[in-house]
Amino acid sequence: MPNRTVFFVSDGTGITAETFGNAILAQFETEVRRVRLPFLDSVDKAHQAVRQINHTAEVEGKRPLVFVTVVNMEVLKVIKAECSGMMLDMFGTFVEPLEAELGIKSNHRVGRFSDASKSKEYDDRIEAINFSLMHDDGQSHRDLEGSDVILVGVSRSGKTPTSLYLAMQHGLKASNYPLIPEDFDRRKLPPALVPHRKKIFGLTIAPDRLAQIRNERRPNSRYASLENCRAEVSEAEAMMRREGIRWLSTTTKSIEEIATTILQEIRPERLGY
Length: 273
Description:
The chain is 46% helix and 15% strand. By secondary structure, the protein is α/β, with parallel strands linked by helices. The strands form 2 sheets. The chain has a 4-stranded parallel beta sheet, sandwiched between helices. Strand 5, helix 6 and strand 6 (174-178) form a beta-alpha-beta unit. Helix 5 runs antiparallel to helix 6. The protein starts with a strand and ends in a 7-residue tail after the last helix.
């Protein structure tokens, strides 16, 4: 059972509050119930949120934890005055000291997505996502030159989710290309990849984990057999060594860890946040 309820309160999407709050909570071995309260853009909504938080405190007999990213001062005033939870005001903690240090006032903009429709960076991010979808799993060889990074590896080694994460989170045009038995028989990279060697990064995975993942998709098939997975992984890793391709194992790594390693190695010129 959860030990405590945690509220993520924001007058925007709440993504900042939730990301920061979860990073802090990960330092504690405790189970929590998470409640999202985004788009509190009026005093009336603030009062409703406070009633929900205070009711939770009464029912559970413990103060809820409340991570807050609110820039609307009227809304924030209500939450600070009436909330019975343990309030962690992230903007107040960081923005006010920065205003004093920089000698300027923040623009008190509600969320980084509020003016997305006018942002070139947002358009670039959407273009990167579309590019990554079109170049998923070797679907298209066109414009591989336009890729910021090309991921290679055996099927189900984590190429697609990593490509999409790089596109969505960092605005990178990430292609991914599967290494298949025909490539291993030729003992060479697929011809389409050869001109772009500097952009290639390899992903591998432990054969037993690969077999488990493939069995969820095609149970009891040769494709998913442990013997076949061992052979494919061994051949793929041998090819990466021969071709001088940088690579890592995704077996125990999160998408965030994989992406961070790739960014450190590839160091693309164009990088967004």
